[in-house]
Write a structure and sequence with these properties.
Layout: E1 11-19, H1 24-39, E2 49-53, E3 65-68, H2 71-78, H3 86-95, E4 99-105, E5 109-111, H4 115-119, E6 127-135, H5 136-139, H6 146-153, E7 164-174, H7 178-191, H8 201-209, E8 215-217, E9 222-224, H9 229-243, H10 251-254, H11 267-276, H12 282-295, H13 301-304, H14 308-320, H15 323-330, H16 349-361
Parallel strand pairs: 1-2, 1-4, 2-3, 6-8
Antiparallel strand pairs: 4-7, 5-9, 6-7
Helix pairs in contact: 1-9, 3-7, 7-8, 12-14, 14-16
Protein name: Nucleotide-diphospho-sugar transferase domain-containing protein
């Protein structure tokens, strides 16, 4: 049985994370996000970081307060409809009691500037979200949004009087926003009652609850790499294998050695690759682009460990093809570079890439 911890004091501000499960990749993701926040602090600035987690021992020695979540709480937060992102709205609602300003942060977020630049934009009735994504009118007729559209019609929402939808990878609210979060949770329960077709209902509910309030984007201050996780996961694994996960004062500064973007060839190299592939069919063009991008990645220790993720993307595309198309792509000799593809920038990569693809084809 865990020893009961004293209740946390209410603070002027807090970065709030929700992390559960025992996957190493998400623990590293969270810790690296925290390091980027700490690395951006100006002289004299302090930062309160709170972590809601079912594994508080993972953060022992880190400059964070942990809030232990038991299985009963995790089940309760998921709700009766089996929608696990409901937990995020519940975590924010619970966190409101712990600070005047709360900045909830998804673990796949890198801070590009001091978190205080974001806190300065949060005020009663003024919110911060990761980024604007689209208007409801843009997606309301998509097949997977039809059911939600019927739910929104009962609230008087149509394509003609739509509202803005924001990505909630980062969400800034104040301690006076209990009703806002309660409404979001109530909407989540309403919209997931009879199964659900989309998995972003949580952020749609929050956007809907905020629809008549001013919302600012945080994308100038953070980078939410949700669509490029595999590159950052590889770099973060390399970082912690080099420096260890035990916190020490040097770690925030050391995290700046890790690039804040995925490995992309220079504009000139991208133009050359595009030109070389100009006459290829669309699917072959995509595969060729990914293979050549991985080879032409800039020289950097951290890019070296993740450029194969470009090749992984190519292999997934090839695996979607039928057997005949795969045979035509590789030709009679699967150990040689496909004749109809431009060769990679580094000749040594030819065999490396072919070996990688052959291994993926046999698994």
């Amino acid at each position: 049985m865990r020893e009961a911890l004293p209740p946390l004091e209410k603070t002027p501000h807090q970065l709030l994370y929700l992390i559960y499960g025992n996957q190493d990749v998400y623990r590293r993701e969270a810790k690296f996000s925290m390091l980027t926040a700490l690395s951006q602090l100006k002289r004299g600035e302090s930062l309160c970081i709170r972590v809601m987690t079912d594994r508080p021992e993972d953060y022992a020695g880190w400059p964070v307060d942990t809030i232990a979540l038991n299985e009963q709480t995790m089940t309760q937060w998921q709700g009766e409809n089996g929608y696990h992102h409901r937990r995020k709205a519940c975590a924010i609602a619970q966190g409101l009691k712990l600070a005047q300003k709360t900045l909830f942060v998804d673990t796949d977020t890198l801070f590009l500037e001091s978190p205080h630049r974001v806190f300065d934009r949060i005020a009663p009735g003024r919110y911060v979200m990761d980024r604007f994504e689209y208007d409801w009118s843009y997606v309301c007729e998509r097949p997977d949004y039809v059911k939600l559209g019927r739910c929104l019609q009962t609230h008087g929402i149509s394509a003609n009087n739509s509202f803005k939808l924001y990505n909630s990878g980062l969400c800034g609210v104040t301690d006076g926003d209990t009703r806002l979060l309660d409404e979001s949770i109530r909407l989540i329960d309403e919209w997931t009652r009879d199964s659900f077709d989309i998995h972003t209902i949580e952020q749609i509910a929050l956007s809907f609850a905020m629809r008549n309030q001013p919302v600012q984007e945080a994308k100038k201050f953070v980078y939410h790499y949700f669509a490029e996780k595999r590159f950052f996961h590889a770099m973060q694994k390399h970082f912690f294998s080099r420096h260890g996960e035990q916190f020490r004062a040097e770690l925030p500064a050391l995290c700046t050695e890790v690039p804040r973007c995925k490995p992309v060839p220079s504009p000139w190299q991208r133009l050359r690759i595009k030109w070389k592939l100009r006459n290829k069919r669309k699917s072959v063009k995509k595969v060729g682009r990914d293979l050549l991008y991985g080879s032409a990645a800039p020289e950097h220790p951290y890019y070296e460990v993740c450029r194969h993720e470009w090749w992984e993307s190519a292999s997934r595309e090839i695996l979607r093809w039928d057997e005949d198309k795969q045979k035509r792509f590789f030709g009679t000799d699967k150990g040689r570079w496909p004749k109809h593809l431009p060769r990679p920038a580094k000749s040594s990569d030819e065999q490396t890439i072919i070996a990688y693809l052959r291994e993926r084809m046999t698994h």
